[in-house]
Write a structure and sequence with these properties.
This protein is mainly beta. The chain contains 2 helices and 29 strands. The strands form 7 sheets. The chain has a 5-stranded mixed β-sheet, with no helix packed on it. A 4-stranded antiparallel β-sheet has the order 1-29-28-27, with no helix packed on it. A 4-stranded antiparallel β-sheet has the order 2-3-4-5, with no helix packed on it. A hairpin with a 2-residue loop joins strand 15 and strand 16. The termini are far apart.
Length: 374
């Protein structure tokens, strides 16, 4: 080959290779870096305080539990770098030593339930509280409101459209029914679930996991365990609109066989986090209509995993605890971030910040926070 032709071929090959490699390099240079997440521990909590649950109110982190100096219920508010304690006024002996296990906050009201074990059988003795974030007072109830031979447990309290509502369970001929308590003038009343959508049957055992409120609607997320098909669970919700007495059940859509709804949170819309056939799953909707979100692919055992759904400014997140790791999933992007080490107890979002309540291998609990970005 003539020298000039050899130089021409070399030049053309070089240009072709440059054309092939240049776009790839450009895409790599333009690809956004994975945002880093740095977790910081909230250091201002009293050393004798053991947190049980987290909530949010007016852009503030609310932490509830019990102190041991001596044993007493404790409610804390974290605002910027300061932490203050809310005044609590107990009425009963068990109220004076209760651990607050669930709280609900509105613009001007706050509600809580607490419990402490006692009596001949060591069952939980429940207490109910109401007020605002300046102070809450216990309202002692008669024993049979939450106790007795058929008593179950209290799972959560929410501020519903018709007033505060407690969701729990109560004994029935078929095991436990999902059960609702409502309040009027500080007196709580249990509503019989028999014959309603909340009642377990000979074919299904129902269980509640979490409750949330959107607009005028209360939503319970849980599971219907089939008793005639090999004990296969199915994720479901039960919803009730304000001013109506009927609960409506909706089974969550899934292409899988076994599914469980383990948590629910609401903002402009609601997000349910759960497990489908051993993988973390999510559903979005308004309480009666749900759509399955793209699968996460993250393995999880619904009997062993702790899952929490929460929202930050960047969007919906799911915190998943698989011992000994905690993983945060951005629902919109599928991107995952490592969380602090330990056992996940609860998680909420305030503005851009995720707050996680975590227990380490010594049994010590701490609240960790990090800003999450899309």
């Amino acid at each position: 080959m003539a020298p000039w032709r050899r130089r021409l071929v070399t030049l053309l090959v070089g240009l072709a290779l440059g054309a092939l490699t240049l776009p790839a390099c450009t895409r790599a240079e333009q690809a956004p870096p994975e945002p880093s997440v740095e977790w910081a521990r909230l250091e201002q909590l009293p050393v004798t305080f053991r947190a049980e649950t987290l909530d949010t109110g007016s852009g503030r982190l609310i932490i509830a539990g019990r102190s041991s100096d001596p044993d007493r219920p404790t409610l804390l508010i974290s605002d910027s770098e300061a932490v203050r304690e809310v005044r609590l006024v107990p009425e009963s002996s068990y109220g004076r030593t209760a651990a607050l296990s669930s709280i609900a906050v509105t613009a001007d009201r706050a509600y809580a339930i607490g419990g402490d074990r006692g009596g001949a059988h060591g069952n939980v003795r429940w207490s109910v509280w109401s007020g605002n974030l300046d102070g809450l007072t216990e309202h002692e109830q008669i024993f049979w409101t939450f106790g007795g031979q058929s008593a179950g447990s209290l799972t959560t309290i929410v501020a519903g459209p018709d007033g505060p509502m407690i969701i729990g369970n109560w004994g029935s001929p078929h095991g436990l029914d999902i059960t609702v308590w409502t309040e009027r003038q500080d007196v709580w009343t249990r509503h019989d679930s028999r014959g309603s959508a909340l009642a377990s049957t000979a074919r299904e055992l129902l269980s509640e996991k979490a409750t949330a409120v959107i607009d005028n609607r209360v939503i319970i997320a849980g599971t219907a365990l089939g008793l005639t098909n090999g004990l296969v669970p199915r994720a479901a919700t039960w919803s009730r609109d304000g001013g109506t007495g009927d609960w409506r059940r909706t089974d969550l859509p899934t292409d899988g066989t076994a599914s469980s709804a383990l948590d629910v949170a609401c903002a402009e819309e609601c997000l349910i986090a759960g497990v489908v056939d051993g993988r973390v799953a999510a559903w979005s909707g308004d309480g009666t209509t749900w759509r399955a979100m793209p699968p996460t692919g993250l393995a999880a055992d619904e009997k062993a995993v702790t899952i929490r759904a929460f929202r930050v400014d960047a969007g919906w997140q799911i915190a998943v605890a698989r011992q000994p790791e905690i993983t945060i999933i951005d629902v919109a992007t599928g991107r995952t971030h490592p969380g602090p080490g330990g056992t996940l107890i609860d998680a909420v979002g305030v503005g851009p910040t995720a707050h996680l309540l975590v227990e380490d291998d010594t049994g010590t609990r701490a609240t960790w926070r990090a800003d999450l970005h899309s």
